[in-house]
Amino acid sequence: MIHSSAFVDAGAELQADVEVGPFSVIGRGVEVGSGTRIDSHVVIEGPTRIGERNRIHSFSVLGGAPQDKKYRDESSTLEIGDRNVIREYCTFNRGTEGGGMVTRVGNGNWIMAYVHIAHDCKVGSENVMANGTTLAGHVEVEDCVTFGAFTAVHQFCRIGAHAFSAMGTVVLKDVPPFVTVAGNSASPRGLNTEGLRRRGFRSEVVRAIKSAYKTVYKRGLTLDTAMEQLGAAARESAEVHRFREFVRASERGIVR
After folding, report:
1. Which residues participate in catalysis according to the annotation?
2. Residues β-bridged to residue 174
3. pLDDT in tens, 139-155
4. What is the model's pTM?
5. What angle do CA 253, 255, 256 make, to 5 degrees?
6. How far apart are the first and last CA of the chain?
7. Domains assigned to the chain
8. Could you give the 3-state DSSP secondary structure of residue 37?
């Protein structure tokens, strides 16, 4: 399953059914799980752990050293889960001491061409990252987020579950769950209602989220007052609770 022109270091561990295409390079300290296919001209540096049934397309470079001037060749890692599609020319960097020494990508993500995931990012599962999406260091992405093409996210930002960014968005602050943002710099443009519909959210749940959104974004309230007013709704709705707690925990402030 390994092409004769590929190089696999003796210190790499690949399951027996892993496919490695022509001219790919798999370095020492790389672990690859069952059913994963690595196309031609891919470079994977270690320490990197890749789970099962991933598809890694040509010219991607995974597990490279972080682009951080403070990095001093510490043995940091990249961890990738299962069932991810990683298209051409993607770059994922390992972690740094300042971010817990690990960059992590979850399961079932659809990651299109030229996506960059920088050091110490924590990316959840079932996300869509369109062409040219760029995450700076220490960005946290929850689950089921959709990034439009050429979205750029500033370091240390957090992106909540089911959020959506339009093409060319520049994100400088945290984006709460369920919210759509667009522009440079990003501003709120309503809820990701289409994404919620596709994910099977019930109409009454969407109504509760819309009401929470209006409390934060449409009523001219201070953020502290809006959080107080959401207290009762958060006790009745898990989704409103998630929205409220994300906003309350924000250190950079939210897009508003």
Report:
1. 119-120, 137
2. 254
3. 999 999 999 999 999 99
4. 0.96
5. 100
6. 51
7. 7-141 (2.160.10.10), 196-249 (1.20.1180.10)
8. strand
